[in-house]
Structures are given as C-alpha cells and as structure tokens.
Design brief:
Length: about 575
C-alpha cells in the first residue's frame, strides 16, 4: 500500500491504526488478519483522493474527467463466444476515448449461470486485437431494488490481454466474428463505482435491476434514453398477490383462519417492503441510469383492505391443528389445482410461527412444525419389504402422477424411471423406480411425527432387511384380526433424504446407524429431535471418557451384521437407560 501510493510505510501503518476508514477496504486479509489490497484497488483510491497513480495502472482508473462525451462506436445486442462455454447473448456498447476503448457488456438472461470473469472475454470480439492493450472492459454488477437508501451501482473492470502477440488483421474499427481471436484473455483489475467510469467517458452508463436484463428489454432500450417500466418479474409481489387472491376466492379464511391470516400477514409485509424498495431506488444517479424499472404494486382496494386488517393467529393449538390438516390436503391436490400453492405456502408460514413460539426452547409445537412427511428411498427387496408390501394398496401410476405429493417423489428425474405406485393404510404414497444399475428401489412419503408409536405394543418388533447404505425400518405388530400391522418407524425431522442403516457405523449425524439410533431414542422416549441429539452426544462423550455405561441399544444397531430384529420393549428399556446415563454424564 505504501509503495504503490508513494507514502512512507510508517504513515500507511499510522493511517490504518488510527483511521482505517480513510483507506480503501481491504480486498483480503492474510493468515494473521493483516490487510491486503490489490494494486488496482489502491490505484482507484489514489485517484479518488488526488494521490499519484502509477503509470502501469489501467487508464480508466486514473484518467481525468472527460471534457466532452466519448464517441459511441456501437450499441446493440450481440452474441459472443466465451472459452469452454456456449455463445452468450449480451447488450454491448463500445466507446472510443482519447485513452482507449471502453467496452460495456451486460449478459442477458440468467446472470448467475457463469461468473463474469468467464464472460468478459467476449469483449475481445468487439474490437481489433491491436486495440486490446488499451481497452477497458466494464461489466456492471446487477442489483436488486434497494433495501436501504444507499444505492451505489458498481462495475467489474477488466483488461484484455493476448498471449500470442500482435495479430495481423484487416483495418476496421469494429470486428464481429463467430469465434474469439486466438489468445484473447481478460484480467480482473478492480471494481469501480459507475460514477467513476462515467467520469472518463463523459456519458451516463446503463444499469440493470437484476431480473430485468432480458433480450427484449435490451432491444427496447435502444429506442429509450431514459428509464422505462416493465412487468414485475423481480420482486415476487405479483405471485404473492395472485396467491392471496386465490385464497380469498376459495374462502380459505372460513375453513382455515390461521392459514389465511398467515398468508395475509406475509403479503402485507412483502407489499410494504417492495414499496419501500421502490422509494429507495432512484431511476438515475451520478453517471448512471436505470434501463428498466419493474412496475410498482397496484393491488385492488378490496385487497388493500384485507392487508390492512391482517393479524396472525397466535393460539399455537389452532396453528398446529391447521398445519397438520393442510399438509395432508396439499399433498392430495391435483398438480394444477389453484389451491395447491396456496396451501403449500400457508404450511411454511404456519410452521415458521410454531418454531417462533418455542424459540430457544423447542418442544411439542416445534415437533409439529418439523414433522412434515420426509422423502425416503431404499431397496425394494427383502422379507421386511415383503411384509410391508402386503399392507400396501396398488394405485394407478398415471393418476398418482397428478398429485402434488407424488410429484415431489418423482422430482429430479425419477418420473422417467417410475414403475408402480402404492398407498399405505395411513394414506401415504410410495413409488418404485428402476435405477441406472437395474436395481429397483422405492421412494416414499415417510412419517416424522410420533403419533404412530401409540399403536405399538409389547409384541411389536422393529425390523430391517439386510444392512446396507439404506434399509427399510418397520415396526411389525401382530393384531387380533390376523394381518401383521406394518408401520414405518418415524424418521428424525430435518433428516433430508438420509435414513436408516445399521452395522459397522459410528458417529451421531442424521444418517447411517446414528440416524437409526436417534430415531429410536426419540420414538422410545417420546422426546423432540433436539433432545434425542443431546442424549446421544452425552452418551458418546461418556463412553469416550470411560464414564457411565456403554449403550447397548447403540451397540446393537452399530454392530448387527444380519437382518435387524429388536423387541420394542427392549428398545424402550435401553433408551431409558441411555437417558439416565446421559443425565449422569
């Protein structure tokens, strides 16, 4: 920093120690936390503070303000190559200044697909190679509507380099070609405020709200010198408004008042946030202007009245009851039912409210919030699976595909390899799929709530087929009527797609033998997932320090090599022992 700015090292250290805000923000820190600046960052700071800028700095950082607007050589939508990637469509401008070309690139479409470092090299196609060494490439950093009043658009700045030396080309000012010139590369220099870049161009620079940078809007901008309004595809408010209007039409408030209230409260909060963001986002600033602004919210008077009166239902019993009911209703709706998304969003809001009700002290309401059906997959083979299959009802696969719950089972490409569909006695769905190696597995809606445990008796056996990466774990209970009752053992909430296995494992994550152990602790003791985790960790620490007794339940799960068979009374006894040992530890 001192060498680059021409000041003494002592002065630089004093500045950093006494007033670090007077220096540029470090780009990185070293292993000891000491600041590190890139050369271009230091140069940009020097230019802003009137200090000397080194001769090898990119001119756009240090050039004086333009006395007249730069000549604009091109402004259009172009398609350029980027190394190792498909051709990319961009909005491009080329300005010619006394110091060199400034090439503006704005990728159109999904800007998260590739990093700008990969895309900036496309600028090399827009001018002759002989001008590369003095060109500056700028790529604005798209922003959302402003959450605060601080709105200062910036751009990445790059230098074009060539690894092959000068290339003889026919003289021309612009060069649009199907392939980039050999050896073209870019080097990131720094990021600058658009105001700093505009100063050396003498023209305002177009800037985009993320989500508005489409080919259509880029083409439309060619006929506009100022900001124009486009449909809102940015804030999510139109979807929120449409969802709440569907809920009003379906009279959701009469059947599920807590769910409707949650939707209305969320919509009111979103509306206030979007309107504030519009207020905080100017259409132009120093050296820049917005190309397109999403349309502002315009709800009907009736909807405004609903939002003004929105208050949440605070009784956790009502919230928990509606959440449980809506989860079942939503999964059984047709994929095109307009209430499907309404119910899905409502369940998320209700679950969040229950978690907030027990923040810091998770209990029964947190369990309800987290006890939606999980998706579990394991081999469709073995004696336990056969016993389970005897209690399943085959359903038409094409009809099942129409249901929202089943569509979740078939997501991520499983729809193409689905074979059959079933439903269990509690209404949960299961589909079988053929994997790429030819094996048949199932994907099932798997319970996480503990209510099924109430039906287990002293004759119940917990059983799993041959150990592997995943297995079915069922509670097998004889009944007076004759048929064997088969209940999926509830999985830990927040368990993702991991599930049950046993034999030769260790650790206390949510998968493998540890996942089985945690699930059985929770079922046997009727406790929350967090409480089961605390008991498991305490026992683990006790065994490692030779304090307390080793867990026989854990040993049975982690060392069994053949089919798993555990008596439910024995599991409850060992789980109670583990709780007592954990409390002692």
């Amino acid at each position: 920093m001192a060498r680059r700015t021409g000041i003494s090292e002592g002065r630089a250290r004093a500045l950093y120690d006494t007033d670090p805000s007077g220096l540029p923000h470090p780009d990185r820190v070293d292993a000891e936390g000491k600041p590190l600046w890139l050369g271009a960052t230091i140069d940009a700071w020097s230019a802003r503070t009137g200090s000397t800028v080194p001769d090898d700095s990119l001119w756009v950082i240090a050039a004086p303000a333009a006395t007249e607007p730069a000549v604009e050589l091109m402004r259009r939508v172009v398609t350029v190559n980027t190394p190792g990637r498909d051709r990319r469509t961009m909005f491009a401008i080329v300005w010619d200044t006394d110091h060199g070309h400034v090439i503006y690139l704005q990728p159109l479409g999904d800007t998260d697909e590739h990093h700008k470092d990969w895309l900036a090299v496309g600028a090399a196609e827009l001018i002759e190679p002989r001008w590369w060494s003095t060109a500056a490439v700028i790529m604005p950093v798209e922003e959302t509507l402003a959450l605060t009043t601080e709105f200062s658009p910036t751009a990445y700045v790059y230098r074009i380099t060539s690894r092959t030396g000068p290339i003889d080309e026919p003289p021309s000012v612009l060069r649009l070609c199907p392939n980039p010139p050999p050896g073209a590369a870019v080097e990131w220099q720094t990021h600058l405020d658009l105001a700093d870049v505009a100063k050396v161009i003498g023209r305002p620079i177009p800037f985009w709200i993320d989500g508005t940078q489409t080919v259509e809007n880029a083409g439309r901008s060619l006929a506009h010198a100022d900001t124009f309004t486009v449909p809102d595809t940015v804030t999510g408010w139109p979807a929120t408004q449409a969802r709440l209007e569907r809920a009003i039409t379906a009279k959701v408030a009469e059947q599920h008042p807590a769910a409707f209230a949650a939707l209305a409260v969320d919509a009111a909060e979103r509306l206030r946030a979007v309107r504030t963001a519009h207020e905080n986002t100017p259409s132009a600033g120093a050296g820049w202007y917005l190309v397109a602004r999403p349309a502002q919210p315009a709800p009907s008077v009736k909807l405004e009245q609903v939002l003004a009166k929105a208050t949440p239902v605070t009784d956790p019993d009502i919230v928990a009851g509606e959440l449980t009911e809506l989860r079942t209703l939503e999964g059984d709706l047709d994929v095109e039912d307009p209430l499907g998304e309404v119910y899905e969003e409502a369940t998320q809001f209700l679950a969040r409210r229950l978690r907030l009700a027990e923040r810091g002290n998770p209990g029964k309401y947190t369990e309800v919030a987290e006890s939606g059906a999980a998706i579990y997959s394991a081999p469709w083979d073995g004696p336990v699976v056969d016993a389970w299959r005897a209690n399943l009802t085959s359903v038409d696969l094409d009809h099942a595909r129409r249901l929202r719950g089943v569509r979740r089972l078939l997501a991520d490409g499983f729809d193409e390899v689905a074979l059959e569909a079933y439903r269990d006695v509690d209404g949960r769905y299961l589909v079988t799929v053929r994997l790429t190696d030819g094996e048949i597995w199932f994907r099932a809606e798997w319970p996480t709530a503990l209510d099924v445990v109430d039906g287990w008796t002293d004759e119940t056996i917990l059983a799993g087929d041959e150990p592997g990466s995943s297995t079915v774990l069922l509670a097998l209970t004889p009944t007076l009527q004759g048929p064997l009752r088969t209940d999926p053992v509830p999985m830990q909430p927040r368990n993702g797609t991991e599930g049950f296995s046993y034999g030769g494992g260790c650790g206390y994550g949510y998968g493998g033998p540890a996942g089985t152990y945690l699930a059985l602790l929770r079922c046997a003791l009727g406790i929350t997932a967090d409480e089961a985790g605390r008991i498991a960790r305490a026992n683990h620490a006790a065994r490692r320090s030779d304090v307390g007794s080793a867990s026989r339940l854990w040993e049975a799960i982690s060392t069994t090599q053949g089919p798993l068979r555990l008596s439910w009374p024995w599991v409850k006894l060992r789980a109670r022992d583990d709780r007592e040992a954990a409390a002692t530890a």
